[in-house]
From TrEMBL:
Gene3D superfamilies: Jann2411-like domain. It comes from Nocardioides szechwanensis. Residues 127-169 form the Zinc finger CGNR domain. It comes from the Bacteria. InterPro entries: ABATE, ABATE_dom_sf, Znf_CGNR. This is Putative stress-induced transcription regulator. SUPFAM superfamilies: Jann2411-like.
Amino acid sequence: MDFIRYAERSAGLLNTELVDVDALVGHLEGREWLHSQCTERDCQQLRRFQRELRPVFEASSVDDHRGVIEGLNELMVRHPITPRISDHDPGDLHLHVATKAASVAELLIGEALLGLATLVCDLGPTRLGVCESTPCTNVFVDTSPNQSRRYCSDRCSSRANVAAYRARQRAVAKSA
């Protein structure tokens, strides 16, 4: 499995407002085989997990290495991960989070933690962030080569750049 994708899905999970099962199904776009298994209990578990995971992204965004590592370790104790080797493609053995008897919430939590733990070990604990565009509070995973990402999306980046440009234009107009 592509652990970067697991990590990015964890950011997507935090950025999703899980008000009901339909919202969870919407979050699972492209994973139709999970749709019929979604329950309100999954939504409740995932909302709780969102509150637990957000501080890890916040710690990373302020270069709090200890907060990221301790936060993830604590979450992995609270939500044990059971990886298994998948052989659905014999030429490409890889790891998945075990899904037998797991709920949709347990699967998504396991994927998020496995992806984030692997990302932190491979790229470092400062690759998670909170969007710098006001008033956005979305989170993101920074896999850029120079670790330069500051916004959750191109939309927020454009909005921030336009706001900065307009502020500079106002400053020039006032000084003239």
